[in-house]
Amino acid sequence: MGQRLHDPDYLRAEQYRTDANLAAREDLHRHFSTNEYGWFRWVFDHLDVPDGSRVLELGSGVGDLWLENRDRVPRSWEVTLSDFSPGMLDAARDRLGDAAPRFTFRVVDAQAIPADAAAFDAVIANHMLYHIPDRPRALREVRRVLRPGGRFFAATNGRRHLWQLEELVRACTPGAKRENAAAAFGLENGAEQLQPWFAKVERDDYSDGLAVTEVEPLVAYVQSTAVRDVLDPARVDRIRRAVAERIGRSGAFHVTKALGLFNCVVGE
User: Fold this and answer.
1) Quick one: which of 230, 246, 256 has its CA closest to 164?
2) CATH code for residues 4-159+179-207+258-265
3) Could you tell me where the DSSP H helices lie in 63-134?
């Protein structure tokens, strides 16, 4: 499978060309998460951003942060949703529907943000920094486009995130391995990558897990990842049987989550 996690051509042309793969993963979390207070509501709670702010989201995907918080976004905010995939931005516009005119949509490479210095009061990067080949360059850009005192919110996973799925894939598909995004930028190593660029870096963790009671959503999740390159019908059926057996024995396929958010402040 190679280093698909950091391959912009693969990510743009295959993994995130449309919202289908992301939708399969989000559906699993939406329907089987044990924390009833959703991730996107929790993230929004942590956006310490004043009225009248200019806000940029990098890697906004299909716009879930804003869709889940439509009732909470201050009218005075000027919000730009950006992604390096035009297909994802198209999906975001469609999903936001009548609320879409409140936002600006731009195709953006986080390693070269097309904005003036100090153009934004806040920048958000939700589960996307681990995809960037040159993270120091991207963080330099984030720092450049933030005003003094501005904030950067970077969400990511921990190393133990979804480790039961890693075991499932390894057991049912010998030789295959899911890339661990947290090894590139995670809860354990994110602060040290952020500290050179920001005066203050704080981390908040989100408590959650999965209790999956249906087979097919979990199988669809696995098939939405880069592992699908080595999944023939026999291997998919092996995964399906293993999931069904676990649910039948325990009542649910339990999966650990490790999620959190870094809140960073630019020096004055």
Assistant:
1) 256
2) 3.40.50.150
3) 64-67, 86-96
List the domain boundaries for the chain. 4-159+179-207+258-265
Distances in Å between the alpha carbon of 234 and those of 219, 228, 241, 254? 13, 12, 11, 24
Encoded amino acid at 94, one letter: D
Query: What pTM value is reported for the model?
Result: 0.90
- Ramachandran region, residue 267 (left: φ > 0; alpha: ψ -120 to 50; beta: rest): beta
Q: Quick one: which H or E segment has residue 124?
A: strand 120-126
What's the confidence (pLDDT) of residue 1? 39
For 251, other C-beta atoms within 10 Å of its C-beta total 10
Residue pair 93/117 in contact (Cβ under 8 Å)? The answer is: no
Q: Are the C-beta atoms of residues 206 and 260 closer than 8 Å to each other?
A: yes
pLDDT digits (tens, 9 = 90+) for 159-207: 999 999 989 988 888 766 666 789 999 999 999 999 999 999 999 999 9
Q: Can you spell out the DSSP letters for 155-177?
A: EEE-TTTTHHHHHHHHHHSTT--
CA gap 146, 224 in Å, rounded = 34
From the CA atom positions of the chain, what is the Rg in Å? 19
Helix ranges (DSSP H) in the chain? 8-10, 20-32, 39-45, 64-67, 86-96, 135-145, 163-172, 181-184, 190-194, 215-223, 233-250
